[in-house]
Amino acid sequence: MMMMVDNTLEKEDDNVAFKLAGIVVDDIRFGKLPAEVVSKAELFLLNGLGCLVAGRATEIGRGINFDESLTGKEKRWVETVKPTPEQYKMYRDASGTFSTELTTVCLAGINHPDSVVVPVLLNMGQKESSREAIVEALVAGTEVMAKIGILLNPSLYYKGWHSTGVCGIFGAAAVACKLLQKTKEETANAFQLAAGLASSDFYRLDKKYPVIKVANPGIASVAGVSAATQEQQKNCGAELKRTSVDDFVGTFRDGNNNSQSIDWTRYDILELFFKSMPVVCAFHAILEPLHDLLAKNQIDAADIAKIKVGYHKIPSDYYSGHTARSVYGAQTSLPYSVAILAKTHHAGIETFTKDVLKDKDVQRIADSVEIVPSERKGTDDLIAGEIELVLAGGEKYSGKVDKALGCSPKDVPAKFFQLARFGGLNEEAARRVYRKIADKEYDLEDLRI
C-alpha cells in the first residue's frame, strides 16, 4: 500500500539529505562517470555477484538454525515487519551475501556496500535494465553508504551500532531511487524516511552474540527500499516518518567523528577494500602477516604455544570471543580465524567448516590467543595490526602490517569463480556472466544467476 507523508523537510532544514540526493540524481549519470569509476563499479558487481551466489551455501543462506540468538532476531523481525515473499527473498539474498565475509569494505565508512547494493539491484531492477542503469545504481548505492558512513563513524561503532545495517538503509534507498528514476526531492525524502528507520534497535551490535549482525544487511535492504517506494508497513518496528538526516547524523557526532574529512565530490567507490579471506575485514591485518610467518619459517600448528595480536579497538571489542558455535561464529572470531589459518595454512571460504572447528589444535591455539587493542583509532587503521608467535620451544616470530593488502583487482575474477563454485553455480554459467561483464554487454537478466 502506498502512503503520503506530509511532514516534508525543506532543503535548508536538511543539508545532508539534499546533498546526497544531488549526488544520486544529478552527478551519477553514466555519461558523466569517469572510466575508472565505471571499471571499479563492474569489479564491485562481480565481487558482489560471487558473494550472493556463495551466500546461498552458507549457514544463513541455507536457512540453518545455527545460532538461537540469530533465529530469535529473525523471528522478531518477521513478526514485526510481516515481509512479503519478495521482501523476504531480498532479506535472504542480502544477509546471505554478507555472511560470506568476502564483500567489499568502505574503510572510512566502516561498511560493506555490496552486501546491500547488489541484492537490492537484482531484486528491484527490471530485466531490461541496461548496463548504464546498473552501473548508475551500483555507484549511487555505494557512494551514499560510503558518505553516510563517513559522517557517522567511527563514533557510530563506538556507540554500539552496526554500520552496514544503519548505512545500508540509505544505500538501499539510493539504489531503489536510481532504478525508479526518482526526482531529487523524492530522493531526499526517501533519505529522510530512511533516517527515521535507521535508529531501530535491530542494528545494535551485541558483544555477547556478535553473529546476529549477519541479519542486518537484509533487514536494512527491505527498510531502504520501503523508504524509496513509501510502502506503508511497520518497518523494523517503526512507522515511516521523515527525520532530518542532519539531526540523525548529529546524534553520533563527537570527537571521534570522521565528518570533517568528508569530500562530497570524491568517488569513494575507488577506495573500496576487496577482502581476500572470509573473515572480518580487520582480521586481514593479523592473518596476512601470520600467513607469511607460517610459510617463511615452516611452522607447524602442533608447535605453536601462544599467539599475541594487536589491532584496532573497534573489532577487538566485538570479535575477540574464544568460542565459536558455528562456521560464521569462527569467521567473526579472531582467535578462531587465527587458529584455523595456523592449522591449515589457508583461509578460503571452503576452509571454514564444522569439522575444522572440532580440531584439537584449532581449539588449543584459539584458546591461546591474547588480544591487545591498538591505540590507533582512525578508520584507516582498521587494516593495521601486529602478531607474535611463541613456539613450544620458546622461539618467537613476529610480523606486522600498516595496511593489509586484501585481494588485488586482477585477482577479483578468480575470486568470483571460487565463490561461484562454493555456491554451486556451474562453470559454464559463471563464465557466461563473467564474459558478459568483461565485454561490457549485459543487462539485468544476464546477471540473475
TrEMBL record:
One of its GO terms (molecular function) is lyase activity. Residues 278-421 form the MmgE/PrpD C-terminal domain. It comes from the Archaea. Residues 25-229 form the MmgE/PrpD N-terminal domain. Pfam families: MmgE_PrpD_C (PF19305), MmgE_PrpD_N (PF03972). Belongs to the PrpD family. This is Uncharacterized protein involved in propionate catabolism. The lineage of its organism: Archaea, Nitrososphaerota, Nitrososphaeria, Nitrososphaerales, Nitrososphaeraceae.
